[in-house]
Amino acid sequence: MGSLFNQFAAITMLNVRSIPQRMAMSIASVVAVAMAVGVLLGFMALAEGFRATVQGGGADDVAIVMRDGADSELSSVMLSDQLNILQAAPGVAHQGDKSLVSGELYLIVDGIKRSTNTKANMTLRGMEPLGFAVRRGVHIAEGRMFAPGTNEIVVGRGLLREFSGFELGREIRLGANVWKVVGVFEAPGSVFESEMWADARVVQSLFNRGNSYQTARIRVTGANGFTQLKNAVHADPRTNGLLVRTEREYFKSQAGGISDLIGRIGFPLAIVMAIGALAGALNTMYGSVAARASEIATLRIIGFSGYAAFFGTLVEAITLSIIGGLVGALFCFIFFNGMTTSTLGGNFTQVVFQLKFTPALLVSAVIMSAIIGFVGGFFPGIRAARQSPQIELAAQ
Question: How many angstroms separate the CA atoms of 142 and 157, rounded?
Fold first, then answer.
């Protein structure tokens, strides 16, 4: 067994050291694998960044109340009388003598994307004055909060990066009315940064929403507070038809569908490119075996086994593929990690987020490249193991 292991090691080192002699073919194989891995990582980073952004604003001590059966805020509706009942419900946290409850509206408006200079959907959220206090990790970075009863808005930092015309102090037209940007808020790593916020009563009036809302955000007094609120809503016939979820649960449901869609688009494309990379690896390894036919024959004559030839060829292919995978991963990390982009979210508005590369994605890249290398080296390895020493030497 020791002798066989030494044969494996000797042929493996010989094959790896001879890679520079087949530099052009080796580079082509590495580049093909790097491209396949890069495409896969790019889509996975998109999905991971979107998921992290949407779920990042979720909290377990913040409840979202909306119409039962509505799959998003956009399709929900809530009456002002129901909002008043929620403000007096058990389990609701207070700030002084005020309940931390914010009745909110979710509207779609148009904006111009900086990157393409084309129109895209954005979120205008009408909220109660306590809407800021209900949310965690949100603060005004520039300017000030909007004044209740006025046509003033504050915009998220992410929205400001992706859309033009929303700088502090600018006047913008949304619908038939002119609004003034008086503040820029930050909510790092959260979907909130993709929104604009204004006073709910003004939004109701200017967009003909009467006295209705779509959702209510409520800060609760911990896990028990959420349970108390949920039970109270279900038990009161006046709030019949309302669904109570934690903010984290809601965002998780919103993130899942889009992330899965990104994955469903990315994986087939990555598989197609992986097939191309596999073809390149097979071509490289068959060429390697043919170029070293005399070397393999000589080793076989002096006592090296076919298993050693097979193993050495396989290791060479896996080595080239893993190098390609690491090159692809490094390229993606350097040029795309943290890059800001946007896509449609669950409410048909643009969600601004950053591509996010994680250690798990790097592991996926290495595994994918190793699989390409294994398949790409398996059949050429069998050919190397089955070569007849006498015939190969005679041909030389």
Answer: 10
- Is the pTM higher than 0.70? The answer reads no
**pLDDT reported for residue 393:** 43
* CA dihedral (198, 204, 205, 206) positive or negative: positive
Structure token pair of residue 227: 């349970």
CB environment 265-281: b (16+ within 10 A), e (fewer)? ebeeebeebbeebbebb
Check whether residue 51 and residue 74 sit in a common domain: no
State mean pLDDT over 296-323: 77
Distance CA 110, CA 121 (A): 5
What is the structure's pLDDT at 86? 94
Chosen domain end from 240, 269, 294: 240
> Which pLDDT band holds residue 381 (cuts at 50, 70, 90)?
confident
Q: Is the pLDDT assigned to residue 392 strictly greater than 50?
A: no
Sign of CA dihedral 121, 127, 129, 130: negative
CA nearest to 247, candidates 145, 135, 167: 135
Residue 247 in any domain: the answer is no
How do residues 198-243 score in pLDDT, each as one tens digit? Answer: 999 999 999 989 889 999 999 999 778 999 999 999 999 998 889 9
For the chain, the distance separating the N- and C-terminal CA atoms, rounded to the nearest angstrom, is 32
Structure tokens at 58: 């979720």
Task: Tell me: do 214 and 84 sit in the same domain.
Answer: yes
For 36, 94, 118, 162, 206, the CA distances from 176, given in Å and listed in that order, are 48, 37, 20, 23, 8
Record the tokens describing residue 183, joined without a space.
Answer: 């503040």
Amino acid (one-letter) located at 290: A
Is residue 60 in a domain? no
What's the total number of domains in the chain? 2
The DSSP letter of residue 146 is: P
